[in-house]
Structure formats: C-alpha cells, structure tokens
Amino acid sequence: VVFSSVVAQRTPSGAFLAAFDLATPSLGGALACAADALTNMPAGPVAPGQLIAIFGSGLGPAPPVSASLSGPDPVPASLGGVTVAFDGIPAPLLYVSSAQVNLSVPWEVRGKAFTLMTVAVDGSEVASREFAVAGSSPALFVDTSGTAADGNSSFPAVAFNGDGSRNSQSNPAAPGSAVTLFLNGAGADTGSAPPADGSITGSDPAPSALAVSVNAGTLALETGPLTPWPDTIAGLYRVQARLPVSTIGGLRAVPLTVTVGGVLAAPFVYFDKVYQAGGWVWIGLR
After folding, report:
1. Cβ neighbours of residue 15 closer than 8 Å, sequence gap 6 or more
2. Around 182, how many Cα atoms within 13 Å sit in the side-chain half-sphere?
3. How confident is the model at residue 285, as a pLDDT?
4. What pLDDT, on a 0 to 100 scale, did the predictor assign at position 218?
5. Burial letters for 144-170: b for 16+ Cβ neighbours within 10 Å, e otherwise?
6. CB neighbour list of residue 21: distance below 8 Å, 6 or more residues apart
7. Does position 19 have pLDDT exceeding 50, yes or no?
8. What's the pLDDT score for residue 153?
9. How far apart are CA 37 and CA 265, in angstroms?
10. Reduced to 3 states, what is the DSSP secondary structure of residue 135?
11. How many Å apart are CA 19 and CA 25, to the nearest integer?
12. pLDDT per residue as tens digits for the range 43-81
C-alpha cells in the first residue's frame, strides 16, 4: 500500500508504510542514511534542487574530493569516480568520499510522487534508495557547531545583520533592523522553468514565486521575497526579515520560524531528536 499524499508531507503524525516490495529489494547495504545537507535533518521527502548528504560505506574514494559551489562552471555530475542518479537523471555532486556524498537533487524530480536514487562507484552500482518527492521541503540553515545534549537544546540560525556581518552573541542585530536568513530545499519556483542541474545562480537573480513568511514567536515579521542565493549552486535561497522594534536593553535570543509555500521550514532533528522548529538570532541595543 502506498500513502503518497501522506509520505510527501514532512510532519504527519503517526507511522506510515510508504512502499513494500519483496520482489525488488533495495541495494541498501552501503547506504546507512540520508539527511538534509545543511541541518543534518533526516531526509524524508526530497525536493527539487535540495542539497542532501548520504552516509554509509564504500560510497566513493578514500581521499575525499570536493567540487566548487560558486562556479563559474556548473557543479559536475561525476566526481572521484562517483555518480548518483535519480530515475536515471545524474545529480550534481559537491563532495564524495567513502563514507559520505553530498549532492543536489535534480530539478527533474518535480511533479513526481517518488524517485529512485542509485549510487555507482567506478561504474558499479553500490546502493539505491527510494524517496518520496515534495514540491518544497525547506530547511533553515542553522549552526550545529555547538553540542546538542538533550531535547531542550537549540541552535542559532545562520544569519547576517543589515551591515553584512554574521549575527552572533558578540555581534547582535539592532532592534528593528533586517537580518538575512538562508534556506535549503525550498523547491522549484511555481509556474516557471527550473534552472539547469548544477548551475550557478547569477549575481542578480529574480525573486521566487513561492510565498515566504517569518515569525518571531507569534509575531509575523515584515518579510522580503524568497530569492535565490546569488553566486552559488541553484537551489539555495535567502530571505530578509525585519526584527521587532524594542527599547529593552541587554542581549536576547529571538526564535524565528520560516514558512515557504505553506510548509514550515524544518522541525530541526539532530541524532533522531526534534529540537526546534526554526533557529534563533541575537538582538540587542548597542
């Protein structure tokens, strides 16, 4: 039995059997798990252009090989003897090693209910995995460099202040100022042709047609359009949001949640535990 409408959702309650086929077992021995490449969130449905990481053994060369994300040439679909395909469509590869491969899901999966990923090393298939496909499976970039000890832990968003500097505890944003947030897995623009697989976004990209909103708790923030991240691989996005105005002195961490196309950006999962529904930024009077 296939519950395609439920599998394509990212936060349904309960457990569901996506597919069960005794006749064609998956080549899953070398592949341990797949995750959103920027948050470590286990990948359920994948979205067009989403960066994901797959983990296992024997997935590539022992010395890691990396590709450039910033061009000018497109990200290659073959790297270090490794190729990954989704329904036969080669995926751009950012990083390959024996234990990990980072890739971009081909834009051609959009509109499908499921897609079959296959991994080959030096021409021999070593692993395969079927994924449900969602039009959008957004995840907010968060900084996981800190240690997550329990379910009450949380992580800051990767954010830039209005002056272009990195938001941090020692460099908070001013109340009422705008911060820039970054997203992965937002999916293809509705009603437009997708970019070429592995292509590099130009320096002045047009905004996406997908609706985006940012909240600080229950407060809806003034939010700019969702825009492709300039000068990096197509599929990464950024959005600006204006923080609440406050006259309260001191330093505070403000939790932010982002919704893209009606889908909440990642309940963040780390080592199979849900920690938060977004990220937080530092704000303070200077």
Report:
1. none
2. 21
3. 66
4. 86
5. eeeebeeeeebbbbbbbbbeeeebeee
6. none
7. no
8. 58
9. 14
10. coil
11. 11
12. 778 999 999 999 999 999 999 999 988 778 899 999 999
> What is the separation of C-alpha 69 from the centre of its chain, rounded to a whole number of angstroms?
15
Q: How far apart are CA 76 and CA 103, in angstroms?
A: 10
Structure tokens at 191: 């009603």
CA pair distance 277, 253, nearest whole angstrom: 15
Least confident range of 1-10, 69-78, 182-191: 1-10
Q: Measuring CA to CA, which residue among 194, 203, 29 is closest to residue 126?
A: 29
DSSP letter at 108?
Answer: G
The verdict on pTM exceeding 0.90 is: no
232 compared with 6, residue with greater pLDDT: 232
> How many angstroms separate the first and last alpha carbons of the chain?
58
Place of tokens 């599998």: 7
How far apart are the C-alpha atoms of 21 and 61, rounded to whole Å?
31
Tell me the two tokens of residue 131.
């994924």
Q: Name the token pair of 159.
A: 């954010």
What one-character-per-residue DSSP string does 18-62 give? ----SSS----TTEEEEEETTT-PBPSSB-TT-EEEEEESSSS-S
Give the pairing type, strands 124-132 and 114-121.
antiparallel
Residues near 22 by Cβ (< 8 Å), separated by ≥ 6?
A: none
User: What's the full length of the chain, in residues?
Assistant: 286
Q: For 122-166, where are the E strands, in sequence order?
A: 124-132, 139-140, 159-160
What's the mean per-residue pLDDT of the chain?
Answer: 83
